[in-house]
């Protein structure tokens, strides 16, 4: 049996937290042979609800769950943490863009970045889910100068999974038959779902109707979060938790041969993006490290969309630079 790892989930009493914790404890994220100690961080008014979540986790008698720490103190929550899923933040409601949450949520990520810096394992893997995810990840990273900046990532995997599901439906194939989807840029309505490299059972997909791609598929993926808010009256939760599991699993356990996943990670300058911006890229993962897929041909059509999402991320960064330590 491996020794247990410590996994922090913030916003543990929220919608996504409630979907996420049980799957982590069941081994869906880090594997059937990896025991976990869950650290649940919440704000004081939610601590009673967290106690209920703790009771339910206990009642599952998960063999891999070797301990639970529930706290409203970030310094306690991040102590010796190996993985952190930063979910706790306000969700948007109808008619809002995710960037409208920037002012409300930014402070949370500067506080948590500092706590990670001071208390976490130096190899910690951080995934930011709370919106606007890319820029919140940048805030956390900039407040953690002693942690390798590459360890801070944000979630575009839900967009990646949505894009695969839409294409599978269009092509009448199973989602498992598709590979090489890419989400470039921001987890926002400027994201660019790129199907130029998409394959079905290893064969490049040709003959996609460009009009459908541009005017139906791309907006559907970009606006899927808003469509769910409209339908459910609340933002996506189970699918978001599932994507968070997928993101961390890929990062920790690796991606399959001949495929890649989309992760928002600090740019190293690849594809002309300014270094440091937390940008959605196609990546492969092995041995707990991710690597940007290089040399994907970028058409003029793609370049315009990559530029638009890059521009939005630069504007978001400019709005929060005062929170960088
Ligand atoms: N990146 C992505 O693909 C997605 C991101 N999201 C975002 O995830 C976030 C959480 O969504 P939900 O779980 O639906 O919201 P929710 O409102 O159900 O839960 C959020 C929880 O966070 C807690 N919280 C607030 N401040 C905190 C702090 N400083 N420390 C610890 N916990 C804190 C709240 O008490 C609440 O229990 C939202 O910002 C939402 O927009 C949602 C779906 C997809
Ligand atoms: O749309 C939202 O506000 C929640 C979210 O990020 C998503 O579902 O992609």
Automatic annotation (TrEMBL):
Gene3D superfamilies: Lactate dehydrogenase/glycoside hydrolase, family 4, C-terminal (3.90.110.10), NAD(P)-binding Rossmann-like Domain (3.40.50.720). Its EC number is 1.1.1.37. It is an enzyme of class 1 (oxidoreductase). It comes from the Bacteria. Residues 157-321 form the Lactate/malate dehydrogenase C-terminal domain. Belongs to the LDH/MDH superfamily. MDH type 2 family. This is Malate dehydrogenase. Pfam families: Ldh_1_C (PF02866), Ldh_1_N (PF00056). Catalyzes the reversible oxidation of malate to oxaloacetate. Substrate binds at residues 92, 98, 131, 162. GO terms for molecular function: L-malate dehydrogenase (NAD+) activity.
